[in-house]
Structures are given as C-alpha cells and as structure tokens.
Amino acid sequence: MKYFKYIILTLAGFVFHSCNTDDFLNPLPDSSIVVDAFFQTDADVLAGIIGIYDAIQGVNENTNTSLISSNRGIQFEYMLAELRSDNTRTATLEGSKADFHRYLVDANNVQTEDYYQSMYDIIFRANNVLNFIDIADANNQSRYMAEAKFLRAYAYFNLVRFYGDVPMVTSVVGPQDNDALFTRVPKDQIYQQIASDLQEAVNNLDNTYKSRASKAAAQGLLAKAYLTQGSPNYSGAEQLCQAIISSGEFALQDTFPDVFYNELNDEIIFAIQYEAGNTLESQSFSSEFTATYRQGREDGHNIVNENLVADFNAIGGNRTASSYWDTGTWLEVTKFLPEGSDITTTPPTYGSSPRDAGNDWIVLRYADVLLLYAEAILAGGTETTNSSAIDSYMAVRVRAGFDPVADRPSILTKNALLAERRVELAFENHRFFDLLRFGVADAVLSAHATEMGYGAYDSRKLLLPIPSREINLSGNLLKQNPGY
User: Fold this and answer.
1) Lowest-confidence region among 215-224, 230-239, 346-355
2) Measured distance CA(476)–CA(388) in Å, rounded
3) Which of 30, 75, 378, 478 lies in disulfide reach of 474, CB 3.0 to 4.6 Å?
4) Per-residue buried b or exposed e for 254-292, using 16+ beta carbons within 10 Å of the residue's own CB
5) Residues linked to residue 191 through DSSP beta bridges, in sequence order
C-alpha cells in the first residue's frame, strides 16, 4: 500500500488545507478541482480504493505522537472494545487511555474522538470513490463499487455499535451541509444501509483477497450485522455463515499460534495489513500491550483480568499459552507480540522494531464464523440440540485440544457458546460486542465493575459519548448520548 499511501495523503492534504480546518470529518474542499484532477483513470479510482484501507490502517502512534486529529484508524479500537469488556484493563490509572476500563470516558476523550473521526474518514473516502466510479473501466466498476460499499458498511457497523444513532452520509457533501453531516439517524436505518452495502459486496466480489474486501468477508460481516441489529435476522445470518462454510475456501489452522503468525493463512477471511519497520505502514498497539518489559511509549495496555484467566483455565485448552503469559508482574497479551519476540529468554526479546510492528489486525476469521453459525442456529434461545450447531462449536474446540467424542455436548447452551467465543477470540475486540448480542452486557459488566471497584459504570455507558468537538462543530445540531 505504500505507493498509494503517498497519493492519498497528498490528496487529503489538499482537501484539509483548502477547507482551512484541521477537522478531517470535513470530506471535501470548497472546490472540487483537486478531486476532479485526481480521478482521471481506472488506476486513479483503484488508488482511491486503496486509500480507504489506508484510513482503516491508521497512523502509528510512534510515528506521530500528536493527540489531535491523528487518524489512528483501528489502532485505538482495543480501548473502545476490549478495555470496556471484562477481558482487560490498563496497567496504569493515568491518562485518558485508562478511562476506558473504568467507564470514565467523557465527551472530550481524545481516543474515542479520534476513532469516531477515523471511521468517518473511511466513509467519506468511500463516498468520494463512489462519486467518480464511472471513470473506472466498465469491467471494473461493479467490483470497485462493491469494494467501496463494503468498506463504508464496515465503518458504519463500528460506529453504530459504539455510538448508537449516528449521522449517515452516503454521497459526497460539502463543508456546509450540516444537516447531512450532523443529524443523527436511527440505528435501524443505519443497519438497513449496512445490509444494502454488504449485499452488493456479496453479489459482486469473489474471494481473491484476504487483505481487501471479499465475498466471504461481506457474508461474514453481514451475518454479524444481522445478529446485532435491533430485530435479529437469525435465518439470514445462518444462511450466510453456511455459505462461507460450504465454500470450502477456508479452514482452521492446525495450531492456534499459526492464526496470528502465519499471516493471511487459510483461516483469515479479512485482515488489515501492516509492515514491520516501515513507519508509514506499521502499527504500535503490539508494543503497547507489553508492561513488565515495556516496549511501547506508555505503561502496558490490555492487561488480562483474572476472571478471563479463570475461563482459560477451565476451557482454554492449548490456546491458553498462545493467548497470554504471566510475567510475574502482569498478565500480558501474547497473541500480538511484535515479530521476532521470544518470551522464553530472560529478559524477553521483542524483535527489532516493536514500536513499528507488522502484525496484521484480524477483522474476521473462520473460527469466528463457525461460532457465529452456532449462534444463528441458537436464534436467541438458551440452548439447542441441533447437530450442525454443535459440530461447528466442536470444530473450534477440537483445534484447542478437546476430544471430539468425549467432550462433545448433547446440548449446546448459550452460556457455553459465549464462553467459547471469549477464550477463542480474546483480545481480538469481540467480547464487548458479544455481550451486547447475547443480551447480557449490562448484567456481566455491572457485576464486573462492582468486582473491580469501578464505581462509574451504569447501563448508559454501553454507548460511548459523541465527541464534544463534533457537537461544537455542528452548532449543537449533533445531540449527545444520555448520561454524558
């Protein structure tokens, strides 16, 4: 992506400068000259699409330490998701990053503001590509359109789950179009747009790529959206997961560590790529997960909670050793250790560029789909005897070392499935959303907050605040979530 990154950042620089603002929610310059000049060929449209991935990838915090409008992409997502679940916390109580696990995030938090803006940067780049799709070669237009819409849906799916009702912009708008930019749209309408965009991606993409949009990625994301929306579409989700399983194009890795260190393997359906040692293409969250022998800029983040350790001890199997380790001081995540790490040495080694790490971020993998399939069959119930659901559940557990016969249940319960998702997908930013989908988020997180002494929790904290900066820019047209 390196070549395309320079193009997109150059274009973005013109956009923001011409608007005389540092607000990267603003999607267009006052004049469309720059955009018209950029999109002239099929290659330009493709470059624009690659630029959308660049927005997801984000800027390494080690490369640019600014806390203002830095566009971290998904590199802050673990704070909004994993830290706000019962899985992890930070090793320090200092700074705004430590507010997430204690449910103290306010509307001025710079990390959630950056994430909100980053998701809209993805959306506006996608809309911009779609606006000039007819410049692409006729044979590529439907594929490019589907890819841009997949990425737009991905961003909206993140936004609606974290913030609830959000502004929905599906076309290029100017800086003065406040109604479009700042009017919150009901969640049900957002989900309708997500489903429409993803269905187009399903219809027009194949499975050529794992680091770009694909048919299977669209199917998996749509299945998850169906299970998450206000009125779940269980049968639709089941059919989509079944289609991925029946395709024969994906398989569980033989060993759990290979999922994370044999990148773009057969289990990966969609991942965001990074390149080690390249300041423009690397990520820094891998180093921030370290604590005892700190490799990041700050004290360790994503420190493992004891209640998750208890679940690993009970049902983790051979996944446990590859998921976290006890340093004697902290319980630290090991799924995303920087390349070249060796924690068996004293002190451990963390590769040549831990702050410029190349570990890919996995958005969707086959084990997730297998468990989603069982969830769809469960259809909101408390248990099922359906053999297909149990087969799917057991496929993941057998890879973890459990016996396919002796450990096979006759009844799959909702609680067992939720626990299995917790240990299989720990630290991959799924737990918070799983609790929401299973309808137990308030009960689980309220009990967790009480256990940990986090007095600030209440059910309104299941939604993040709309950033104050965006409310101010809107002239108070954009309204805040309750409780903030």
Assistant:
1) 346-355
2) 51
3) 478
4) eebeebbbebebbbbbbbbbbbbebebbbbbbbbbbbbb
5) none
Q: What is the CATH architecture of 1-60+80-88+106-205+457-484?
A: Alpha Horseshoe (1.25)
191 touches 225 (CB < 8 A): yes
The pLDDT assigned to 36 comes to 56
Distance of alpha carbon 40 from alpha carbon 36, whole angstroms: 7
**340: nearest Cα among 328, 318, 357:** 357
CB 56 within 8 A of CB 158: no
Whether the CB-CB separation of 355 and 295 falls below 8 Å is answered with yes
As a whole number, mean pLDDT of residues 411-416 equals 98
For the cut 80, the answer to whether the pLDDT of residue 27 exceeds it is: no
d(CA 115, CA 1): 21
CA distance 172 to 123: 10
Q: Are 367 and 267 in contact (CB under 8 A)?
A: yes
Nearest to 427 by CA among 316, 296, 299, 275: 316
Q: Round to whole Å and give the CA distance between 465 and 483.
A: 8
Tell me which H or E stretch contains 31: none
Tokens of 120: 């809209």
Give the domain ranges of the chain: 1-60+80-88+106-205+457-484, 274-359
